[in-house]
Amino acid sequence: MKKMFLLLVVPLVAGTAAAKDKMQGTIVSESSVSCGSQAKGKKETVQVMCQEYVIRTDTTEYHVRQEKEGHKAMLPVNAPVELSLSKDRMKFTVNGKGYEMLVVSESAAPAGAPASQKP
User: What is the mean pLDDT of residues 31-44?
Assistant: First the structure.
């Protein structure tokens, strides 16, 4: 009887968890921020800049940055995204193209902020 119960409950719980992993959100802003420095000689350093995006879901705002310098595509602001979180990483899709970025901070969405757009 316990085996039958587990066989029925485990797939149901796993399916529910997978559905919760995907969230809808919107890119609300983009800004260039310093992500470190690079040596250009013995005494000269240059600031390395990267894009930081604010992605808002119904309840939370996430600040994410590109993890690798090679990822330099500019993402459109006000674009709907489908996202999932795994520890300090966010995987999301914008206009059918997938991205993975580092979550640098998160906060509650401001009161009265518009809900995320539904694609």
Answer: 83
